[in-house]
Amino acid sequence: MAFFKQITEKYETDRDAICLLDYVIKNSYCWNAPGMLCGNIEVLWAQIKYYKRYYGKDNRNLLNHYVLSFDTCHYEKDIEFHTILMCANMLSRYFYEYQPIWGIHLHDTHYHIHIVTNTINVRNGKRYHAGKGEFKNFLLWLANELKDYHIALLGVTYYDERGHLKYGNVPSNYLYENKNPFEYSMNEGKGI
């Protein structure tokens, strides 16, 4: 199951922002900044900072940071790299008006996508706000997008013992989470 979270750390100085961008980009297998001039980290940060100054909102938290993680040791062990790349592009389209910068990190235990965004919308200068309701709607949107790749989103969707996508949390007494439906059908009637 995939897991999406917002990193709650605040990035309040230029140094904090540059260190975050450095971490996301330099530790990435690949990265992109759609809609921006790709260059070194200072060039990317200058583009984000430009909109902050233009709208007079270059104080407080400077960047938002999110992570979409895949369980590549278990449930998504067969996930192909192009699927992770598609997920990164999908997230960047969602956050497009906030100058997204994403990087794919390939750790041994899990692959994950870091996405960093400006806190200011480049079209209207409004700060990004996602209260509990908006965040829940975003997670539902993300779960619906991930189902096209047969990936469940923890806390939003799961696959039952027959391989059908279900909405909601996995029930605590549910014993067959993500069980291979072909194994299940082959073992029916065999006392297994």
Observed structural traits:
192 residues; alpha+beta; 5 helices; 19% strand
List the topology elements.
Elements lengths: L2 E5 L6 H13 L3 E3 L8 H14 L8 E8 L10 H14 L6 E6 L4 E8 L13 H15 L10 E3 L5 E3 L13 H7 L5
Antiparallel strand pairs: 1-3, 2-4, 3-5, 4-5, 6-7
Characterize the largest beta sheet: strand count, sense, and whether it forms a barrel.
5 strands, antiparallel
Number of E strands:
7
Structural class: alpha+beta
Strand content: 15-25%
Could you characterize what this model shows?
The protein has 192 residues and is α+β, with helices and mostly antiparallel strands. It has helices at 14-26, 41-54, 81-94, 132-146, 181-187, and strands at 3-7, 30-32, 63-70, 101-106, 111-118, 157-159, 165-167. The chain has a five-stranded antiparallel sheet, sandwiched between helices. Strands 6-7 form a two-stranded antiparallel ribbon. Strand 6 (157-159) and strand 7 form a beta hairpin. The two termini are 25 Å apart.
